Known about the structure:
alpha/beta, 4-stranded parallel sheet, two-stranded antiparallel sheet, 6 strands
Amino acid sequence: MSEVEEDLRTAIVKAxxxxxxxxxxxTILSGVSRGASMAVLGAGEKKLQPLLxxxxxxxxxxxxxxxxxxxxxxxxxxxxxxxxxxxxxYPAIERLGPLPIAVTQAEGDKYVPAPEARELFGPDxxxxxxxxxKASNHGFRGGRxxxxxxxxxxxSWIASLPPPESKTTH
Length: 170
């Protein structure tokens, strides 16, 4: 997991340099499917959070199937493992603390349909939003326009929020 934090930090720094953005420009981590899992896991890393404004996870799977959690980190709050040692993504959202996150899920997603995502995610809060899209599969077939509107709304929502008070620039 420490490699995830380091890799994401490097990607954020290089992206800001390539885009000629100030170093203190907040980043919204985002990803689709496995990338959504990475956005949740990365945004939960306390050392990375000062660089972040929030996260957007599109088509979030139930577990991370490519990241194994070391036993030394398995007892941390928000870390729950599946039978193969993969981190369960919805409980990991707790690790974000006050950092905002939006999850967008298709109603017909075979991995985690939107109604099940709502159960796993819980109710919306001032820093948590779930968007359910009328789409038939994990790739949002039949609902791409709605997906894009929801992602745009999520970006605007996160950008409109004041940064969590614990954030400082590193």
